[in-house]
Write a structure and sequence with these properties.
Strand content: over 45%
Structural class: mainly beta
Largest sheet: 13 strands, antiparallel
Distance between the termini: 9 Å
Shape: elongated
Oligomer: single chain
Helix content: under 10%
């Protein structure tokens, strides 16, 4: 994708990307360590220019990833319905050759179809702190086959009870590709 006027996408542009992460380690208090293969996507909108060397701020306007697990059923990470998530960043690190740093800030609702330890209804959790994924060596944006890494493990607790952590996402190596 080539943008008029330079390396950065224009304000207002919406950019959809597909994503997948395989062998994602997730720890559940009632079950222990499991690995999940997530597939899904994200849509960001360019919100504002940044000062300095150059960059733009991005708002995540849609995001969801799902995994199937033999014990847990469908495990889904969905964009949380909150307005406090910081804007994500796309920074220009160099012009020639082009190099970008993309920092994505996520707040998720984690839904587990068949909760560990029983119970009939799906278990709904939220992350206790905003999750950050990063790729600091992009040569093009939107990304094509670029891997974003989780910057630190993320804890999940029942909605409204952040001190009752029951699950932890340990890694999230998400491969992202723009889908026009």
């Amino acid at each position: 994708m080539v943008f008029p006027g330079g390396l950065l996408p224009p304000i207002g542009l919406e950019i959809p990307c597909a994503g997948y992460a395989v062998d994602v380690p997730m720890k559940f208090d009632a079950l222990g360590l499991v690995t999940l293969d997530f597939k899904g996507g994200i849509r960001v909108r360019v919100e504002a220019n940044m000062g300095g060397f150059g960059g733009v701020k991005l708002r995540i306007i849609g995001e969801q990833y799902s995994a199937n697990h033999p014990t847990l059923g469908i495990v889904t990470l969905s964009q949380a319905d909150i307005d406090t998530t910081p804007l994500s960043l796309l920074e220009v690190l160099s012009n020639m050759p082009p190099k970008f740093k993309n920092t994505l800030f996520h707040d998720f609702t984690l839904t587990i179809e068949k909760p560990p330890g029983g119970g009939g209804a799906p278990l709904v959790l939220s992350n206790t702190k905003t999750m950050t994924t990063l790729n600091d060596s992009l040569t093009i944006f939107p990304p094509q086959g670029a891997v974003y890494q989780l910057q630190q493990p993320v804890e999940f607790a029942p909605v409204g009870e952040p001190s009752k952590v029951v699950a932890q996402l340990l890694q999230f190596p998400m491969t992202m590709s723009h889908n026009a």
